[in-house]
């Protein structure tokens, strides 16, 4: 993804690459190509930058973003927001404390076909059920194939975030069954069925596998919505008129981020709005682990308490000021 973001930065009329940072200095130097500084630490190049694109592996998201925010640098970060909800709440509080914008690049919100699907839903009235079917035989190699829950933690966030966007609503509970077929090349569960109940009463179903060879859906999955006025379908990005490349969607994400920095208005994927999408993922993982339904507010309350107990005094003050996680400001 670092390579993809470098391409998006190079293609953007709004930004110029200032530096490249990587724990592996040789990798940073290759990416920088001798044109800009390269380093193994963010602090050493921070003075020459206006913001940070955090394209590290998920386990590094928290530390890199926290360092950038403490340095006064806004951050556009890859999903997932963090590995845990207490970390996510800490970064939301740190963004508020420092006044530095932190946005999660939910790039699939910028698929061209998505707004028209949402418009069709709006015309049909209240939605009773929304379903995503996602099936692909993805062979990545690397960290994904060793993760405990690769599908839920690395891919489902896109669909879950899209469901929130389509329904204009947030979930209240989830039941999830995650499993790994005998032929899977993943170490962790690469298949899952999840059912969310939203505050409106709508149900959202996610039926998916990352080890399903043959009959691939699009990377966005196949969508069906059943509403008061009828049923609407979206096949992700299969229509040539709607198809986006990865460069298209992350370039759109970058453009929205820059516009937000200039206007001072946070986008829909700002950290405080994205916490609930991460909560959907982590609550689905918890349900799959326990075999029981999970009430999302219970998990959010526990995460808030954990974040508060571990926070520095300045961050703790921000966390205490929030009436609830759903009412972060």
From TrEMBL:
Residues 125-216 form the GFO/IDH/MocA-like oxidoreductase domain. GO terms for molecular function: nucleotide binding. Pfam families: GFO_IDH_MocA (PF01408), GFO_IDH_MocA_C3 (PF22725). Residues 8-101 form the Gfo/Idh/MocA-like oxidoreductase N-terminal domain. InterPro entries: Gfo/Idh/MocA-like_OxRdtase_N (IPR000683), Gfo/Idh/MocA_oxidoreduct (IPR051317), GFO_IDH_MocA-like_dom (IPR055170), NAD(P)-bd_dom_sf (IPR036291). It comes from the Bacteria. This is Predicted dehydrogenase. It comes from Asanoa hainanensis.
